[in-house]
């Protein structure tokens, strides 16, 4: 069940981060409220995932997948640049997350 909670935590992190940008430095009340609620849900679900997933693996997965999908969201919604070095970095993050999960499953 830990990975289900971790995936939900990642989804809420991505939503919270998108809302944070839309909040315009917390001047837009609704997006600010969405940011706070989404981050609270994110951290709660992340804490639940730690019952069955090692902290180092859970955190690496949470951060790595969050970075990847936040980059995709920023590209799609705000047309932020996605140059080759950034793409290479994201590929390296994916490799790192996969390695962390593979090593963890063998111990």
Automatic annotation (TrEMBL):
It holds the Pfam family Multi_Drug_Res. It is a multi-pass membrane protein. GO terms for molecular function: transmembrane transporter activity. InterPro entries: EmrE-like (IPR037185), Small_drug/metabolite_transptr (IPR000390), Small_multidrug_res (IPR045324). The chain crosses the membrane at residues 7-23, 29-46, 53-78, 84-103. Keywords: Cell membrane, Membrane, Transmembrane, Transmembrane helix, Transport. One of its GO terms (cellular component) is plasma membrane. It is found in: Cell membrane. Its main location: membrane. Belongs to the drug/metabolite transporter (DMT) superfamily. Small multidrug resistance (SMR) (TC 2.A.7.1) family. This is Putative quaternary ammonium compound-resistance protein QacC. It comes from Lactobacillus iners DSM 13335. The lineage of its organism: Bacteria, Bacillati, Bacillota, Bacilli, Lactobacillales.
């Amino acid at each position: 069940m830990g990975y289900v909670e971790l995936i939900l935590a990642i989804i809420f992190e991505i939503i919270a981060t998108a809302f944070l940008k839309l909040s315009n430095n917390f001047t837009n009340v609704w997006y600010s409220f969405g940011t706070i609620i989404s981050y609270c849900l994110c951290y709660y679900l992340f804490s639940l995932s730690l019952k069955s997933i090692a902290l180092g693996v859970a955190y690496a997965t949470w951060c790595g997948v969050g970075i990847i999908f936040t980059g995709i969201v920023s590209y799609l919604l705000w047309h932020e640049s996605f140059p080759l070095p950034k793409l290479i970095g994201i590929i390296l993050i994916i490799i790192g997350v996969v390695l962390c999960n593979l090593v963890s499953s063998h111990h």
